[in-house]
Amino acid sequence: MPTELAPGVHRLATDYPHVCGLPLWLHVIDAGDELVLLDAGIASTPEAATGPELKKLGHDLADLTLVVNSHAHPDHMGGNAILKDRSGARLAAPAAEAGWLEDNETLVSELWGSDPAAMDLDERERAELFEMLGDRVRIDLLLRDGDLLPSGDRRMRVITTSGHSPGHIAVLDERSRTLFSFDDVQGRGQRYLDGNVWLAPLYTDVERYVGGLQRLLELDFDALVPSHGDVLTADQGRQKVEQSLEWVHDVHEFTTASLRRKGSLTVRELAGSIGTELGDFGGICLQTVRMARAHLELLGRRGGAEPRWHHPG
To answer: What is the distance between the alpha carbons of residues 135 and 294, in angstroms, rounded to a whole number?
Structure first.
């Protein structure tokens, strides 16, 4: 049965744990004449999970009027086409990520293929990724910071955080004082359900990630609700944000020390070290590669490194 977080606000289970070994929760808000779904899951999620979960609440997919994508990663927008077909709901998503949300090739080439010397997808991985992404459809409503969602009798405010991905948003439901942080509050990573390894935090720009986290600390909320973890009280949520900031600091110190010690580093070398020495992340993966590049680029902007990532001393 879906979990009620507040009157009219429910947390929905998904099929993602069976597909990728990680928890993923979607959220539905009853807003009078509007039924709002926060995030779409992967392509299989609407029929495998969201529809059945809605039926337990007396709804079905056809009742949805608005689907909000927090950002353009497969587990948050892969179900868009099916949801649009089944419900006719408007699709709303960050304006900054419209190119990714409407074109799978652009998303995959710019996110997974942006650093081929550090990592690349093989044919099987690429096929699995495109299966999760599903078909693309046009976004009806492009969201910007401070926008209010067209959410019936509820005020739901968009907060741009731009950390986990370039246009990532959070949503604050002002009535229930529930802050949906989606993927931006990552702490020191997320443990896979089998318990063997962790999924590393993912961010592509250090300063934007830090700035987005600091914005969340300025908000007034009673609950912080991530997509891949437990619902947190206000105090727990703020602690998790602080833990996320501490992780960034630790990675930056590690990057600076590694570069000083070795004299030069490739993104791949640093990603491998982050993925084994700072956390049990399995070495080189999308998350550690993007982290490594983000911290090296920050050092470059501050004069602490030079392309190809040599220590200036």
So the answer is: 30
Q: Which domains does the chain have, with CATH numbers?
A: 3-245 (3.60.15.10), 251-301 (no CATH)
Query: Is the pLDDT reported for residue 313 higher than 90?
Result: no
Pairing relationship of beta strands 190-191 and 198-199 according to DSSP bridges? antiparallel
pTM of the full predicted structure?
Answer: 0.95
Non-local CB neighbours of 240 within 8 Å, separated by 6+ positions: 185, 187, 224, 226, 232
Torsion angle of C-alpha atoms 279, 284, 290, 295, degrees rounded to 10: 60
DSSP annotation of 113 reads S
pLDDT above 70: residue 165:
yes
How wide is the angle at C-alpha 212 spanned by C-alphas 207 and 213, nearest 5°? 100
Tokens of 254: 């590690």
11: alpha, beta or left, given left = phi > 0 and alpha = psi -120 to 50? beta
Question: Per-residue pLDDT tens for 216-246?
Answer: 999 999 999 999 999 999 999 999 999 999 9
- Long-range contact set of residues 44-48: C-beta below 8 Å, sequence gap at least 24: 44/15, 44/19, 44/78, 44/79, 44/132, 45/14, 45/15, 45/16, 45/78, 45/79, 46/79, 46/82, 46/83, 46/86, 47/82, 48/14, 48/15
* Percent above pLDDT 70 for the chain: 98
CB distance 176 to 5 below 8 Å: yes
The Cα–Cα gap between 203 and 293 comes to 10
pLDDT in tens, 68-114: 999 999 999 999 999 999 999 999 999 999 999 999 999 999 988 87
Burial class (CB in 10 A: 0-12, 13-18, 19+), 187: middle
